[in-house]
From TrEMBL:
Subcellular location: Membrane
Membrane-spanning segments: 6-26, 116-138, 150-166, 173-195, 207-235, 269-289, 304-323, 330-352
Keyword list, A-Z: Cytochrome c-type biogenesis, Membrane, Transmembrane, Transmembrane helix
Residue ranges of domain Cytochrome c assembly protein in the record: 144-356
Gene: ccsB
Bilayer topology: Multi-pass membrane protein
Transferase found in the keyword field: no
Protein name: C-type cytochrome biogenesis protein CcsB
Pfam family, one: Cytochrom_C_asm
């Protein structure tokens, strides 16, 4: 195939992958919606049982008042009260049985929606990978020489890290957040950042491009997974505290792992990403800068925000290792680090002028 054909194929496959990611997102949305439906019906059934209990109690109270005058009336009242209690018991039992069966059906449907979402994510990932590879073949180089290419490559890394950990750490419950993020990045890249395939600017002609950017993309994908897990950790931890105070938890949140397990997952993912970011950005990056611009460090805006990103995640790992920070405080740092990374990737490239303005790295 000619470079033009590879470019055409890439331009066709990337939007197709975006659509399939959106379909996967819809499936995961249905998964969460079915969980909420279980809770809504359970609350309605509880209200019905409570109403029946109240009616039975009123009947017994009224009959007791009439029993002062006539013994037979009291007998009738007692029977009426027993019938009310029996009816209440019947309604409660039927409600519980019906609710249990309905919950089981909806749980099975939610599981089915989750499996469909995961399969669609795999299909979208394979198309996404094809689009990135053919983009590289069209350009005759690695496919991350500008913002468009780095966007499609880094979002591929997000999907790859998710699919890697989905079996190792049972991360299927994160599908909605991942597919939403990847679809949004691909949509933005296609609509606003697209650049035709072409040669690199002279400063990028180096094998350090492969080392520096691939490490940044993979660690960025892991930062995104860690940030999403940390956000859901805060939601689940709050729900668990509400249960301890006598409240309830929605069925969709019950499908998530415990807050403690999510905290551990975020730590493992970010501990995996931090050394990659350290080597790829703060070691390989300055070496490449010396090759391209004749100096290792020049306080370019991209360099500064890459260092800030490193400091935040170093603080996260240091706080967990030395101060024993767990839970909400650690999750807050992880989320701050993720937003700093996103600003470094998007804000610095689009809003701030610097030596890295021509590329996404």
């Amino acid at each position: 195939m000619s470079p033009e054909n590879y470019a055409h194929l890439s331009n066709l496959v990337i939007p197709t992958a975006t659509v399939i990611y959106i379909l996967a997102m819809v499936s995961h949305t249905l998964e969460w919606a079915m969980g909420r439906a279980v809770v809504t019906e359970a609350v309605a059934e509880d209200a019905l049982v409570t109403s029946a209990v109240g009616a039975g109690t009123s009947a017994r109270a009224g009959s007791a008042g009439g029993a002062d005058g006539v013994t037979s009336a009291g007998t009738l009242t007692s029977a009426s009260g027993s019938a009310g209690a029996s009816a209440t018991s019947t309604i409660s039992g039927a409600s519980a049985a019906g609710g249990g069966a309905g919950d089981a059906v909806r749980s099975e449907r939610a599981d089915a929606a989750s499996r469909v979402g995961l399969l669609l994510t795999w299909l979208a990932f394979l198309l996404h990978l094809t689009g990135v590879v053919t983009r590289g073949l069209a350009a005759g180089r690695v496919p991350w020489g500008n913002m468009y290419e780095f966007s499609i490559t880094s979002s591929l890394a997000v999907a790859a890290v998710y699919l890697l950990f989905v079996h190792r750490a049972k991360l299927q419950w994160l599908g909605l957040g991942v597919t939403l993020f990847v679809a949004a990045v691909l949509g933005l890249a296609t609509l606003a950042l697209y650049t035709p395939a072409g040669p690199l600017v002279p400063a990028l002609h180096s094998y350090w491009l492969v080392i520096h950017v691939s490490a940044a993309a993979i660690s960025g994908g892991a930062f995104t997974i860690g940030g999403l897990v940390s956000i859901l950790y805060l939601v689940k931890a709050r729900a668990e505290r509400r249960v301890l105070d006598g409240g309830t938890m929605s069925a969709s949140l019950k499908r998530l792992p415990s807050a403690e397990a999510m905290d551990g997952t975020a730590y493992k993912v970010l501990a995996f990403a931090f050394p990659l970011w350290t080597f790829g950005v703060l070691v390989a990056g300055p070496i490449w800068a010396e090759y391209a611009w004749g100096r290792y460090w020049g306080w370019d805006p991209k360099e500064v925000w890459s260092l800030v990103t490193w400091v935040v995640y170093a603080a996260y790992l240091h706080a967990r290792a030395t101060a024993g920070w767990r839970g909400r405080r650690a999750a807050t740092i992880a989320i701050v680090g993720w937003f700093v990374f996103i600003f470094n990737f998007v804000g610095v490239n689009l809003l701030v002028s610097g030596l890295h303005s021509y590329a996404g790295v």
